[in-house]
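Continued from yesterday's entry.
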Amino acid sequence: MQLIERTINGYQILSIQEWLTSGLEHGFMNAQLDVSLESGRDWDKVYPASKLKLLKQMHGTHTILVSGNFETDAISAPLTADGWWIDLKSAPQNVAWGIKTADCAPVIVYLKSFKIVYVLHCGWRGTVDNYLALVLKQALETYHCAAEDFEICVGPAAGKCCYEVGYEVVELAEKNFLALGGTLELLAQILIKKEGEKYYFNNSGLLKAQSLLLGVPEQNIYLIPACTICDPAYFSFRRQGDAAGRQVTFVKA
Protein backbone atom coordinates (compact mmCIF):
# COMPACT_ATOMS: atom_id res chain seq x y z
CA MET A 1 0.00 0.00 0.00
CA GLN A 2 1.47 3.30 -1.13
CA LEU A 3 0.65 6.55 0.67
CA ILE A 4 0.55 9.68 -1.47
CA GLU A 5 -0.07 13.35 -0.74
CA ARG A 6 -2.51 15.11 -3.06
CA THR A 7 -3.62 18.72 -3.30
CA ILE A 8 -7.26 19.43 -4.14
CA ASN A 9 -8.26 23.09 -4.45
CA GLY A 10 -5.28 24.01 -2.28
CA TYR A 11 -5.99 21.46 0.48
CA GLN A 12 -3.50 18.70 1.28
CA ILE A 13 -4.98 15.19 1.48
CA LEU A 14 -3.21 11.92 2.30
CA SER A 15 -4.54 8.91 0.40
CA ILE A 16 -3.70 5.32 -0.50
CA GLN A 17 -2.75 5.15 -4.19
CA GLU A 18 -4.17 1.66 -4.78
CA TRP A 19 -7.52 2.68 -3.32
CA LEU A 20 -7.73 5.72 -5.58
CA THR A 21 -6.90 3.50 -8.56
CA SER A 22 -9.77 1.19 -7.61
CA GLY A 23 -12.16 4.16 -7.58
CA LEU A 24 -12.34 4.86 -3.83
CA GLU A 25 -12.21 8.63 -3.28
CA HIS A 26 -10.97 9.10 0.29
CA GLY A 27 -8.55 11.07 2.37
CA PHE A 28 -6.96 12.00 5.67
CA MET A 29 -6.88 15.79 6.01
CA ASN A 30 -5.00 18.12 8.36
CA ALA A 31 -5.59 21.44 10.13
CA GLN A 32 -6.04 23.32 6.85
CA LEU A 33 -9.73 22.42 7.17
CA ASP A 34 -11.56 22.71 10.49
CA VAL A 35 -14.72 20.59 10.69
CA SER A 36 -15.32 21.16 14.40
CA LEU A 37 -18.82 22.33 13.53
CA GLU A 38 -21.25 19.50 12.75
CA SER A 39 -22.01 21.01 9.36
CA GLY A 40 -18.40 20.77 8.23
CA ARG A 41 -16.89 24.22 7.91
CA ASP A 42 -15.69 25.14 4.40
CA TRP A 43 -16.06 21.62 2.99
CA ASP A 44 -17.49 23.07 -0.22
CA LYS A 45 -14.10 24.67 -0.88
CA VAL A 46 -12.57 21.19 -1.13
CA TYR A 47 -15.31 19.37 -3.03
CA PRO A 48 -17.77 22.03 -4.26
CA ALA A 49 -20.35 19.56 -5.60
CA SER A 50 -20.61 17.31 -2.55
CA LYS A 51 -21.99 17.29 0.98
CA LEU A 52 -20.04 16.28 4.09
CA LYS A 53 -21.90 14.12 6.59
CA LEU A 54 -20.42 13.97 10.09
CA LEU A 55 -21.33 12.14 13.28
CA LYS A 56 -21.89 13.06 16.90
CA GLN A 57 -19.02 10.94 18.20
CA MET A 58 -19.21 9.38 21.66
CA HIS A 59 -16.03 7.28 21.97
CA GLY A 60 -18.14 4.16 21.60
CA THR A 61 -18.38 1.18 19.26
CA HIS A 62 -21.54 1.96 17.27
CA THR A 63 -21.35 2.09 13.46
CA ILE A 64 -24.07 3.37 11.11
CA LEU A 65 -24.82 1.51 7.87
CA VAL A 66 -25.09 3.67 4.76
CA SER A 67 -26.86 1.94 1.87
CA GLY A 68 -29.59 2.61 -0.68
CA ASN A 69 -32.30 3.51 1.84
CA PHE A 70 -30.19 6.13 3.65
CA GLU A 71 -31.79 9.57 3.22
CA THR A 72 -29.22 12.32 3.88
CA ASP A 73 -31.70 15.19 3.56
CA ALA A 74 -34.15 13.63 6.03
CA ILE A 75 -31.74 13.93 8.96
CA SER A 76 -31.69 17.36 10.56
CA ALA A 77 -29.63 16.42 13.65
CA PRO A 78 -26.28 14.62 13.58
CA LEU A 79 -26.39 10.88 14.09
CA THR A 80 -24.71 9.48 17.17
CA ALA A 81 -22.04 6.90 16.39
CA ASP A 82 -18.29 6.50 15.97
CA GLY A 83 -18.15 5.13 12.48
CA TRP A 84 -19.68 4.74 9.04
CA TRP A 85 -20.28 1.38 7.36
CA ILE A 86 -20.71 2.26 3.70
CA ASP A 87 -22.05 0.04 0.92
CA LEU A 88 -20.51 1.73 -2.10
CA LYS A 89 -22.83 -0.15 -4.45
CA SER A 90 -25.90 1.70 -3.22
CA ALA A 91 -24.83 4.60 -0.98
CA PRO A 92 -26.08 8.10 -1.92
CA GLN A 93 -23.77 9.79 -4.41
CA ASN A 94 -21.90 13.07 -4.01
CA VAL A 95 -21.75 12.63 -0.24
CA ALA A 96 -18.57 12.39 1.82
CA TRP A 97 -18.90 10.33 4.99
CA GLY A 98 -16.50 11.74 7.56
CA ILE A 99 -15.25 11.43 11.11
CA LYS A 100 -13.53 14.15 13.15
CA THR A 101 -10.30 13.77 15.11
CA ALA A 102 -7.83 15.81 17.14
CA ASP A 103 -5.54 13.07 18.58
CA CYS A 104 -7.85 10.05 18.24
CA ALA A 105 -7.03 7.63 15.44
CA PRO A 106 -9.02 7.79 12.18
CA VAL A 107 -9.26 4.38 10.51
CA ILE A 108 -10.43 3.37 7.03
CA VAL A 109 -11.14 -0.32 6.39
CA TYR A 110 -11.65 -1.31 2.76
CA LEU A 111 -13.16 -4.53 1.43
CA LYS A 112 -12.32 -3.81 -2.17
CA SER A 113 -13.92 -6.89 -3.78
CA PHE A 114 -17.14 -6.36 -1.83
CA LYS A 115 -17.37 -2.57 -2.41
CA ILE A 116 -17.66 -2.05 1.35
CA VAL A 117 -15.73 0.54 3.35
CA TYR A 118 -15.70 1.61 7.00
CA VAL A 119 -14.60 4.98 8.39
CA LEU A 120 -13.98 4.73 12.14
CA HIS A 121 -13.13 7.06 15.02
CA CYS A 122 -10.85 5.22 17.46
CA GLY A 123 -9.85 7.12 20.56
CA TRP A 124 -8.07 5.24 23.32
CA ARG A 125 -11.39 4.03 24.73
CA GLY A 126 -12.74 2.76 21.42
CA THR A 127 -9.43 1.08 20.61
CA VAL A 128 -9.12 -0.53 24.04
CA ASP A 129 -12.76 -1.67 23.75
CA ASN A 130 -11.73 -3.53 20.56
CA TYR A 131 -13.90 -1.38 18.27
CA LEU A 132 -11.88 -2.17 15.15
CA ALA A 133 -11.84 -5.88 15.99
CA LEU A 134 -15.62 -5.85 16.45
CA VAL A 135 -16.05 -4.23 13.02
CA LEU A 136 -13.75 -6.79 11.39
CA LYS A 137 -15.59 -9.70 13.04
CA GLN A 138 -18.95 -8.30 11.94
CA ALA A 139 -17.71 -7.96 8.35
CA LEU A 140 -16.39 -11.54 8.36
CA GLU A 141 -19.81 -12.80 9.45
CA THR A 142 -21.84 -10.51 7.17
CA TYR A 143 -19.91 -10.89 3.93
CA HIS A 144 -18.28 -14.30 4.46
CA CYS A 145 -15.01 -12.70 3.43
CA ALA A 146 -11.52 -13.71 4.49
CA ALA A 147 -9.18 -11.75 6.75
CA GLU A 148 -6.90 -11.36 3.73
CA ASP A 149 -9.62 -9.27 2.04
CA PHE A 150 -9.25 -6.41 4.52
CA GLU A 151 -7.07 -3.41 3.75
CA ILE A 152 -6.64 -1.00 6.64
CA CYS A 153 -5.12 2.47 6.95
CA VAL A 154 -4.74 4.21 10.32
CA GLY A 155 -4.37 7.96 9.95
CA PRO A 156 -2.46 10.63 11.90
CA ALA A 157 -3.09 10.30 15.64
CA ALA A 158 -1.45 10.93 19.00
CA GLY A 159 1.77 8.91 19.00
CA LYS A 160 3.48 6.77 21.61
CA CYS A 161 6.06 9.54 21.95
CA CYS A 162 3.51 11.88 23.57
CA TYR A 163 0.24 10.11 24.37
CA GLU A 164 0.31 9.74 28.14
CA VAL A 165 -2.52 7.70 29.71
CA GLY A 166 -3.50 6.65 33.22
CA TYR A 167 -3.20 3.20 34.72
CA GLU A 168 -6.95 2.62 34.22
CA VAL A 169 -6.25 2.53 30.48
CA VAL A 170 -3.50 -0.05 31.03
CA GLU A 171 -5.80 -2.28 33.10
CA LEU A 172 -8.64 -2.15 30.57
CA ALA A 173 -6.24 -2.68 27.66
CA GLU A 174 -4.77 -5.77 29.33
CA LYS A 175 -8.19 -7.27 30.01
CA ASN A 176 -9.60 -6.72 26.52
CA PHE A 177 -6.42 -7.54 24.60
CA LEU A 178 -6.13 -10.89 26.39
CA ALA A 179 -9.80 -11.59 25.61
CA LEU A 180 -8.99 -11.05 21.93
CA GLY A 181 -6.19 -13.61 22.09
CA GLY A 182 -3.25 -11.28 22.61
CA THR A 183 -0.45 -11.58 25.14
CA LEU A 184 0.86 -9.28 27.85
CA GLU A 185 4.30 -9.46 26.21
CA LEU A 186 2.92 -8.04 22.98
CA LEU A 187 0.87 -5.44 24.83
CA ALA A 188 3.99 -4.30 26.69
CA GLN A 189 5.44 -3.26 23.33
CA ILE A 190 2.38 -1.06 22.73
CA LEU A 191 1.94 0.53 26.17
CA ILE A 192 5.33 2.11 26.67
CA LYS A 193 6.17 2.73 30.33
CA LYS A 194 8.77 5.40 31.01
CA GLU A 195 9.45 8.37 33.28
CA GLY A 196 8.54 6.58 36.48
CA GLU A 197 4.93 5.41 36.58
CA LYS A 198 3.79 7.23 33.44
CA TYR A 199 2.43 5.17 30.55
CA TYR A 200 2.52 6.22 26.90
CA PHE A 201 -0.08 4.69 24.61
CA ASN A 202 0.57 3.50 21.06
CA ASN A 203 -2.98 3.72 19.72
CA SER A 204 -2.05 2.95 16.11
CA GLY A 205 0.14 0.05 17.24
CA LEU A 206 -2.68 -1.53 19.22
CA LEU A 207 -5.05 -1.21 16.25
CA LYS A 208 -2.47 -2.99 14.11
CA ALA A 209 -1.94 -5.71 16.71
CA GLN A 210 -5.69 -6.34 16.94
CA SER A 211 -5.93 -6.64 13.16
CA LEU A 212 -3.03 -9.08 13.03
CA LEU A 213 -4.64 -11.24 15.72
CA LEU A 214 -7.70 -11.56 13.49
CA GLY A 215 -5.56 -12.69 10.56
CA VAL A 216 -5.18 -9.50 8.52
CA PRO A 217 -1.85 -9.73 6.67
CA GLU A 218 0.73 -7.20 7.82
CA GLN A 219 1.18 -5.92 4.25
CA ASN A 220 -2.53 -4.99 4.24
CA ILE A 221 -2.10 -2.56 7.15
CA TYR A 222 -0.66 0.95 6.77
CA LEU A 223 0.01 3.24 9.73
CA ILE A 224 0.54 6.89 8.82
CA PRO A 225 3.40 7.85 11.15
CA ALA A 226 2.45 11.48 11.94
CA CYS A 227 1.85 12.28 15.63
CA THR A 228 -0.85 14.92 16.02
CA ILE A 229 0.59 16.12 19.34
CA CYS A 230 4.08 16.65 17.88
CA ASP A 231 3.11 17.94 14.45
CA PRO A 232 1.53 21.42 14.32
CA ALA A 233 0.09 20.60 10.89
CA TYR A 234 -2.68 18.77 12.78
CA PHE A 235 -5.21 19.74 15.41
CA SER A 236 -4.44 18.24 18.83
CA PHE A 237 -6.61 18.44 21.93
CA ARG A 238 -3.63 17.45 24.08
CA ARG A 239 -1.54 20.30 22.66
CA GLN A 240 -4.20 22.98 22.09
CA GLY A 241 -6.91 22.17 24.64
CA ASP A 242 -10.38 23.57 23.97
CA ALA A 243 -8.98 25.77 21.18
CA ALA A 244 -8.30 22.70 19.03
CA GLY A 245 -10.33 22.34 15.87
CA ARG A 246 -10.99 18.99 14.22
CA GLN A 247 -9.54 17.49 11.04
CA VAL A 248 -11.59 15.15 8.90
CA THR A 249 -11.06 11.69 7.48
CA PHE A 250 -13.56 10.81 4.77
CA VAL A 251 -14.77 8.44 2.09
CA LYS A 252 -16.70 10.00 -0.77
CA ALA A 253 -19.36 7.97 -2.59
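--- second protein ---
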Amino acid sequence: MGGHLVGSRLLRSAAAVATAAVLAVSGAVATTPAAAARSFDGSVASADGSGRAIGSGSAAPPTGRHTAPLTYVAMGDSFTSTGSIVGMDPMTFGSFGGDTCFRSGDNYPSRIREMTGWRVHDVSCRGLRVPLAYTSRAEYGPPQMNALHPGVDVVTLQVGGNDTDVLQLAERCALTADCTHLEAEWAAKVPRVVPGLRQLVRDIRARAPRARILLVGYLQPFHPVPCLDIAPYSAANQHFGRRHVDRLNAMLRDVAHAEGVEIVADRTPPGHSACDPDRWTSFLGVDAGAVPLHPTRAGHLATARMILDRF
Protein backbone atom coordinates (compact mmCIF):
# COMPACT_ATOMS: atom_id res chain seq x y z
CA MET A 1 0.00 0.00 0.00
CA GLY A 2 1.36 3.46 -0.79
CA GLY A 3 2.47 5.76 2.00
CA HIS A 4 3.67 5.03 5.51
CA LEU A 5 1.70 2.36 7.31
CA VAL A 6 1.26 4.60 10.31
CA GLY A 7 0.50 7.64 8.20
CA SER A 8 -2.72 9.51 8.46
CA ARG A 9 -3.64 8.69 4.89
CA LEU A 10 -3.75 4.99 5.60
CA LEU A 11 -5.67 5.51 8.81
CA ARG A 12 -8.25 7.60 6.98
CA SER A 13 -8.50 4.77 4.49
CA ALA A 14 -8.94 2.07 7.09
CA ALA A 15 -12.56 1.98 6.06
CA ALA A 16 -11.68 1.83 2.40
CA VAL A 17 -13.73 -0.44 0.22
CA ALA A 18 -12.48 -3.99 -0.14
CA THR A 19 -10.95 -2.73 -3.33
CA ALA A 20 -8.14 -1.36 -1.19
CA ALA A 21 -7.45 -4.90 -0.13
CA VAL A 22 -6.79 -5.46 -3.76
CA LEU A 23 -3.47 -3.68 -3.29
CA ALA A 24 -1.40 -4.12 -3.15
CA VAL A 25 0.42 -12.09 -6.14
CA SER A 26 5.20 -24.74 -7.91
CA GLY A 27 8.00 -28.33 -8.13
CA ALA A 28 10.61 -27.88 -10.63
CA VAL A 29 8.27 -28.69 -13.50
CA ALA A 30 8.09 -26.03 -16.19
CA THR A 31 4.64 -24.77 -17.13
CA THR A 32 3.98 -24.39 -20.84
CA PRO A 33 1.79 -21.68 -22.39
CA ALA A 34 -0.61 -24.38 -23.58
CA ALA A 35 -1.34 -25.58 -20.04
CA ALA A 36 -4.80 -24.88 -18.63
CA ALA A 37 -5.12 -22.53 -15.68
CA ARG A 38 -6.05 -24.18 -12.40
CA SER A 39 -8.27 -22.18 -10.08
CA PHE A 40 -8.76 -22.69 -6.34
CA ASP A 41 -12.30 -23.92 -5.68
CA GLY A 42 -13.72 -21.65 -3.03
CA SER A 43 -15.61 -24.51 -1.42
CA VAL A 44 -12.48 -26.55 -0.71
CA ALA A 45 -9.36 -25.34 1.07
CA SER A 46 -6.83 -27.90 2.22
CA ALA A 47 -3.12 -28.43 2.02
CA ASP A 48 -3.40 -32.14 1.27
CA GLY A 49 -6.30 -32.25 -1.16
CA SER A 50 -8.56 -33.93 1.38
CA GLY A 51 -11.15 -31.16 1.35
CA ARG A 52 -10.67 -30.36 5.03
CA ALA A 53 -11.21 -26.69 5.75
CA ILE A 54 -8.24 -24.50 6.41
CA GLY A 55 -8.19 -23.17 9.93
CA SER A 56 -6.33 -20.29 11.52
CA GLY A 57 -3.89 -22.40 13.54
CA SER A 58 -0.13 -22.54 13.39
CA ALA A 59 1.88 -23.71 10.42
CA ALA A 60 2.65 -27.41 10.25
CA PRO A 61 6.29 -28.54 10.08
CA PRO A 62 7.74 -29.72 6.76
CA THR A 63 6.53 -33.18 5.78
CA GLY A 64 6.48 -35.45 2.74
CA ARG A 65 6.36 -33.74 -0.62
CA HIS A 66 7.12 -30.28 0.84
CA THR A 67 10.61 -31.17 2.05
CA ALA A 68 12.26 -30.88 -1.37
CA PRO A 69 14.71 -27.94 -1.35
CA LEU A 70 12.97 -25.91 -4.03
CA THR A 71 13.91 -22.29 -4.71
CA TYR A 72 10.87 -20.04 -4.38
CA VAL A 73 10.57 -16.34 -5.25
CA ALA A 74 7.56 -14.42 -3.91
CA MET A 75 6.71 -11.31 -5.94
CA GLY A 76 3.81 -9.09 -5.01
CA ASP A 77 2.29 -6.01 -3.43
CA SER A 78 1.24 -5.31 0.16
CA PHE A 79 -1.27 -8.16 0.09
CA THR A 80 1.83 -10.38 -0.06
CA SER A 81 4.28 -8.42 2.06
CA THR A 82 2.22 -7.34 5.07
CA GLY A 83 1.15 -9.87 7.65
CA SER A 84 0.59 -8.87 11.26
CA ILE A 85 1.75 -5.49 12.53
CA VAL A 86 3.89 -7.06 15.26
CA GLY A 87 5.48 -9.41 12.74
CA MET A 88 6.82 -6.66 10.51
CA ASP A 89 10.55 -6.49 9.88
CA PRO A 90 11.86 -3.09 11.10
CA MET A 91 14.28 -3.06 8.18
CA THR A 92 11.27 -2.69 5.88
CA PHE A 93 9.94 0.43 7.63
CA GLY A 94 12.48 2.76 6.02
CA SER A 95 13.62 3.88 9.47
CA PHE A 96 16.80 1.82 9.59
CA GLY A 97 18.23 2.35 6.16
CA GLY A 98 16.14 -0.31 4.44
CA ASP A 99 13.19 -0.10 2.09
CA THR A 100 9.59 0.68 3.08
CA CYS A 101 8.03 -2.56 1.84
CA PHE A 102 6.47 -3.47 5.22
CA ARG A 103 7.30 -7.18 5.01
CA SER A 104 6.12 -9.32 7.89
CA GLY A 105 7.68 -12.46 9.26
CA ASP A 106 4.26 -14.11 9.21
CA ASN A 107 3.19 -13.29 5.66
CA TYR A 108 2.45 -16.22 3.37
CA PRO A 109 5.98 -16.51 1.90
CA SER A 110 7.27 -16.75 5.48
CA ARG A 111 4.63 -19.34 6.37
CA ILE A 112 5.70 -21.38 3.34
CA ARG A 113 9.27 -21.20 4.59
CA GLU A 114 8.10 -22.58 7.95
CA MET A 115 6.08 -25.40 6.38
CA THR A 116 8.60 -26.57 3.79
CA GLY A 117 12.24 -27.18 3.09
CA TRP A 118 12.14 -24.50 0.38
CA ARG A 119 14.64 -21.69 -0.09
CA VAL A 120 12.34 -18.65 0.03
CA HIS A 121 13.27 -15.26 -1.41
CA ASP A 122 10.52 -12.77 -0.57
CA VAL A 123 10.87 -9.58 -2.61
CA SER A 124 7.25 -8.46 -2.23
CA CYS A 125 6.65 -4.79 -1.50
CA ARG A 126 3.72 -2.51 -0.82
CA GLY A 127 2.72 -0.30 -3.72
CA LEU A 128 3.74 -2.72 -6.48
CA ARG A 129 2.25 -2.07 -9.88
CA VAL A 130 3.03 -4.11 -12.96
CA PRO A 131 5.61 -1.61 -14.36
CA LEU A 132 7.34 -1.34 -10.96
CA ALA A 133 8.33 -5.01 -11.14
CA TYR A 134 11.03 -3.91 -13.59
CA THR A 135 12.23 -0.71 -11.95
CA SER A 136 14.14 0.39 -8.87
CA ARG A 137 13.00 3.07 -6.43
CA ALA A 138 14.67 3.83 -3.10
CA GLU A 139 11.55 3.18 -1.05
CA TYR A 140 10.79 -0.11 -2.81
CA GLY A 141 14.28 -1.56 -3.12
CA PRO A 142 15.65 -3.29 -6.24
CA PRO A 143 13.32 -4.42 -9.04
CA GLN A 144 11.48 -7.58 -8.05
CA MET A 145 12.39 -9.11 -11.39
CA ASN A 146 16.03 -9.10 -10.31
CA ALA A 147 15.33 -12.00 -7.96
CA LEU A 148 14.65 -14.34 -10.88
CA HIS A 149 17.20 -16.66 -12.46
CA PRO A 150 17.22 -20.03 -14.24
CA GLY A 151 17.57 -21.91 -10.96
CA VAL A 152 14.21 -20.73 -9.57
CA ASP A 153 11.64 -23.52 -9.18
CA VAL A 154 8.54 -21.63 -7.99
CA VAL A 155 7.32 -18.06 -8.51
CA THR A 156 4.20 -16.51 -7.04
CA LEU A 157 2.98 -13.15 -8.31
CA GLN A 158 0.29 -11.02 -6.68
CA VAL A 159 -0.28 -7.74 -8.49
CA GLY A 160 -3.06 -5.74 -10.12
CA GLY A 161 -4.79 -3.87 -7.32
CA ASN A 162 -2.55 -0.82 -7.32
CA ASP A 163 -2.70 -0.69 -11.10
CA THR A 164 -6.44 -0.04 -10.81
CA ASP A 165 -6.06 2.89 -8.35
CA VAL A 166 -7.93 1.14 -5.59
CA LEU A 167 -6.61 3.40 -2.83
CA GLN A 168 -8.07 6.42 -4.56
CA LEU A 169 -11.36 4.59 -4.94
CA ALA A 170 -11.25 3.51 -1.31
CA GLU A 171 -10.77 7.05 -0.07
CA ARG A 172 -13.59 8.39 -2.20
CA CYS A 173 -15.99 5.66 -1.13
CA ALA A 174 -15.16 6.17 2.53
CA LEU A 175 -16.65 9.66 2.30
CA THR A 176 -20.06 8.76 0.93
CA ALA A 177 -22.86 6.33 1.68
CA ASP A 178 -23.12 5.38 -1.98
CA CYS A 179 -20.17 5.51 -4.37
CA THR A 180 -21.63 3.13 -6.93
CA HIS A 181 -21.73 5.96 -9.47
CA LEU A 182 -17.97 5.32 -9.76
CA GLU A 183 -18.38 1.68 -10.71
CA ALA A 184 -18.24 2.04 -14.49
CA GLU A 185 -15.14 4.22 -14.26
CA TRP A 186 -13.28 1.81 -12.00
CA ALA A 187 -14.48 -1.31 -13.79
CA ALA A 188 -12.88 0.06 -16.94
CA LYS A 189 -9.49 0.18 -15.22
CA VAL A 190 -9.32 -3.59 -14.67
CA PRO A 191 -8.93 -4.79 -18.28
CA ARG A 192 -6.26 -2.16 -18.87
CA VAL A 193 -3.96 -4.16 -16.60
CA VAL A 194 -4.11 -7.23 -18.85
CA PRO A 195 -1.50 -6.45 -21.55
CA GLY A 196 1.21 -5.45 -19.08
CA LEU A 197 0.44 -8.32 -16.74
CA ARG A 198 0.54 -10.88 -19.55
CA GLN A 199 3.93 -9.51 -20.63
CA LEU A 200 5.17 -9.64 -17.04
CA VAL A 201 4.23 -13.33 -16.80
CA ARG A 202 6.08 -14.00 -20.06
CA ASP A 203 9.14 -12.14 -18.80
CA ILE A 204 9.08 -14.14 -15.56
CA ARG A 205 8.99 -17.33 -17.61
CA ALA A 206 11.92 -16.12 -19.72
CA ARG A 207 14.06 -15.39 -16.66
CA ALA A 208 13.01 -18.50 -14.72
CA PRO A 209 12.21 -20.99 -17.51
CA ARG A 210 11.81 -24.07 -15.31
CA ALA A 211 9.69 -22.40 -12.63
CA ARG A 212 6.06 -23.10 -11.91
CA ILE A 213 4.36 -19.72 -11.94
CA LEU A 214 1.30 -19.10 -9.78
CA LEU A 215 -0.74 -15.93 -9.81
CA VAL A 216 -2.19 -15.19 -6.39
CA GLY A 217 -5.64 -13.64 -6.26
CA TYR A 218 -7.08 -11.29 -3.67
CA LEU A 219 -9.02 -12.62 -0.70
CA GLN A 220 -12.57 -11.28 -0.66
CA PRO A 221 -13.27 -9.09 2.40
CA PHE A 222 -16.97 -8.61 1.72
CA HIS A 223 -19.68 -11.08 2.60
CA PRO A 224 -22.59 -11.51 0.14
CA VAL A 225 -24.82 -10.11 2.89
CA PRO A 226 -23.42 -6.78 4.13
CA CYS A 227 -22.43 -6.66 7.80
CA LEU A 228 -23.43 -3.19 8.89
CA ASP A 229 -22.57 -3.91 12.52
CA ILE A 230 -18.92 -4.63 11.70
CA ALA A 231 -18.02 -2.87 8.46
CA PRO A 232 -17.77 0.92 8.45
CA TYR A 233 -19.43 0.96 5.02
CA SER A 234 -22.96 1.19 3.76
CA ALA A 235 -24.62 -1.87 2.27
CA ALA A 236 -24.37 -0.32 -1.20
CA ASN A 237 -20.64 0.25 -0.88
CA GLN A 238 -20.05 -3.25 0.48
CA HIS A 239 -21.80 -4.74 -2.53
CA PHE A 240 -19.73 -2.47 -4.79
CA GLY A 241 -16.51 -3.54 -3.06
CA ARG A 242 -17.39 -7.20 -3.45
CA ARG A 243 -18.09 -6.78 -7.16
CA HIS A 244 -14.81 -4.95 -7.69
CA VAL A 245 -12.71 -7.64 -5.98
CA ASP A 246 -14.58 -10.31 -7.94
CA ARG A 247 -13.90 -8.40 -11.14
CA LEU A 248 -10.19 -8.17 -10.36
CA ASN A 249 -9.94 -11.88 -9.59
CA ALA A 250 -11.81 -12.75 -12.78
CA MET A 251 -9.25 -10.74 -14.74
CA LEU A 252 -6.41 -12.62 -13.02
CA ARG A 253 -8.04 -15.94 -13.90
CA ASP A 254 -8.28 -14.87 -17.54
CA VAL A 255 -4.59 -13.91 -17.58
CA ALA A 256 -3.60 -17.19 -15.94
CA HIS A 257 -5.60 -19.14 -18.53
CA ALA A 258 -4.17 -17.14 -21.44
CA GLU A 259 -0.58 -17.55 -20.27
CA GLY A 260 -0.85 -21.16 -19.13
CA VAL A 261 -0.02 -20.55 -15.48
CA GLU A 262 -1.83 -21.46 -12.29
CA ILE A 263 -3.88 -19.26 -9.97
CA VAL A 264 -4.71 -19.64 -6.29
CA ALA A 265 -6.64 -17.63 -3.68
CA ASP A 266 -8.90 -16.15 -6.35
CA ARG A 267 -12.02 -17.37 -4.54
CA THR A 268 -12.50 -17.08 -0.79
CA PRO A 269 -14.46 -19.96 0.76
CA PRO A 270 -17.59 -19.18 2.77
CA GLY A 271 -17.04 -18.21 6.38
CA HIS A 272 -13.83 -16.23 5.89
CA SER A 273 -14.86 -12.73 4.80
CA ALA A 274 -14.06 -9.76 7.01
CA CYS A 275 -17.63 -10.06 8.31
CA ASP A 276 -17.01 -13.55 9.68
CA PRO A 277 -15.47 -14.59 13.03
CA ASP A 278 -12.76 -16.61 11.28
CA ARG A 279 -11.86 -13.72 8.99
CA TRP A 280 -9.04 -13.93 6.49
CA THR A 281 -9.11 -10.16 5.97
CA SER A 282 -10.04 -7.36 8.36
CA PHE A 283 -11.83 -4.08 7.70
CA LEU A 284 -9.98 -1.99 10.29
CA GLY A 285 -7.09 -4.27 11.19
CA VAL A 286 -7.22 -3.49 14.91
CA ASP A 287 -9.39 -6.53 15.62
CA ALA A 288 -6.80 -8.84 14.11
CA GLY A 289 -3.47 -7.05 14.54
CA ALA A 290 -3.36 -6.62 10.77
CA VAL A 291 -3.15 -3.84 8.24
CA PRO A 292 -6.62 -2.46 7.39
CA LEU A 293 -8.29 -4.34 4.54
CA HIS A 294 -5.38 -6.73 4.16
CA PRO A 295 -5.01 -10.41 5.09
CA THR A 296 -4.93 -11.43 8.71
CA ARG A 297 -2.49 -14.01 10.07
CA ALA A 298 -5.16 -16.62 9.31
CA GLY A 299 -5.49 -15.27 5.77
CA HIS A 300 -1.76 -15.54 5.14
CA LEU A 301 -1.68 -19.06 6.54
CA ALA A 302 -4.63 -20.03 4.34
CA THR A 303 -2.93 -18.57 1.26
CA ALA A 304 0.27 -20.47 2.04
CA ARG A 305 -1.69 -23.70 2.28
CA MET A 306 -3.53 -23.01 -0.97
CA ILE A 307 -0.18 -22.64 -2.70
CA LEU A 308 1.26 -25.77 -1.12
CA ASP A 309 -1.87 -27.67 -2.06
CA ARG A 310 -0.59 -27.58 -5.64
CA PHE A 311 2.44 -29.69 -4.81
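The chain has one domain: 8-308. The chain has a mean pLDDT of 79. Will compare against the first tomorrow.
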